[in-house]
């Protein structure tokens, strides 16, 4: 059985490798290896049956030299502090590589949201804010949705914060519903960004994306829109997606050699990304085991679910046809898998570049909240495309100039920007 991956140790390992290449001073390394602040707390909630239940909550603020901390809140039964630390760390690098004035943060609650009623979810969301409201805010730390949380839940959180401070403050949370301070384009932004980076990689590799096939892990928000845009923007074909079945407590791969229709799949997928197997079979979609998505003879692989799925044990499943691996998820490839990719012809688009579309659009949402003026969808998408294209270009150029692996190049770009912000503020 594979050894469980500790995501924070993985994040530190990645950082240490590049810090050594950059010959960063030890004092700077120590500041950046660990979060600046961590919050651990209990959230007591009255359940619908009248009983009281306590949930464990977290918020980690990794670094805010460049601006307020920024990052989502996960509601997940397997949430751990090390997962939150890793995701907060990666958010620092993600904001820096995208060149937006924000730092890295992340939050979470150990809970399976599928087991809660809407009323219980609302009480839990408000309870999280009750514990954290003094340490978040538009100029301090701006949460957002993540795995297990939704735009509606962000609306409840924003409302609770506004009540506690006594004024309407939409900019405290991003990823809110449209009409409640949300930005057009935010729902599809991460998946859109994944496809923008694939488009740019294909240009560098001389590939015609219209002739490319793709396989994706996951069918939550990121995978849904990445698969749609891969077809609609690039003209490619999606032959497989996988998803977690919360009833069977296992994953399945849904495939079709002549191409899946993401819009149809979304119509038979619940809010937690579980595809209805019966309706899929009725549509002549093949259902395979959990790792089948990784074993497809495709041009593009997109792990877009959870961290630590491409490991030293599973990397050998990837077929030689794969030319681009686009990390739609955070930390899907372990350092051991990276060592394989460094010696292969696969062009890896690292996570905090590939999936930065969500945080860039969240930044846009905060800007619009400050102005109290909201852009049309075309304007949001155009700004998002330009921002991500520039970010891709900076990483690609660094990789070529320094003759380093793409992930190391992304770290070099990000670390340089964060260290410069720390220097300008007199921290170091």
UniProtKB/TrEMBL annotation:
<dbReference type="InterPro" id="IPR033524">
    <property type="entry name" value="Glu/Leu/Phe/Val_DH_AS"/>
</dbReference>
<dbReference type="InterPro" id="IPR036291">
    <property type="entry name" value="NAD(P)-bd_dom_sf"/>
</dbReference>
<dbReference type="InterPro" id="IPR033922">
    <property type="entry name" value="NAD_bind_Glu_DH"/>
</dbReference>
<dbReference type="InterPro" id="IPR006097">
    <property type="entry name" value="Glu/Leu/Phe/Val/Trp_DH_dimer"/>
</dbReference>
<protein>
    <recommendedName>
        <fullName>Glutamate dehydrogenase</fullName>
    </recommendedName>
</protein>
<dbReference type="Pfam" id="PF02812">
    <property type="entry name" value="ELFV_dehydrog_N"/>
</dbReference>
<feature type="domain" description="Glutamate/phenylalanine/leucine/valine/L-tryptophan dehydrogenase C-terminal">
    <location>
        <begin position="183"/>
        <end position="426"/>
    </location>
</feature>
<dbReference type="Pfam" id="PF00208">
    <property type="entry name" value="ELFV_dehydrog"/>
</dbReference>
<comment type="similarity">
    <text>Belongs to the Glu/Leu/Phe/Val dehydrogenases family.</text>
</comment>
<dbReference type="InterPro" id="IPR046346">
    <property type="entry name" value="Aminoacid_DH-like_N_sf"/>
</dbReference>
<dbReference type="GO" id="GO:0016491">
    <property type="term" value="F:oxidoreductase activity"/>
</dbReference>
<dbReference type="InterPro" id="IPR006096">
    <property type="entry name" value="Glu/Leu/Phe/Val/Trp_DH_C"/>
</dbReference>
<keyword id="KW-0560">Oxidoreductase</keyword>
<dbReference type="InterPro" id="IPR006095">
    <property type="entry name" value="Glu/Leu/Phe/Val/Trp_DH"/>
</dbReference>
<dbReference type="InterPro" id="IPR014362">
    <property type="entry name" value="Glu_DH"/>
</dbReference>
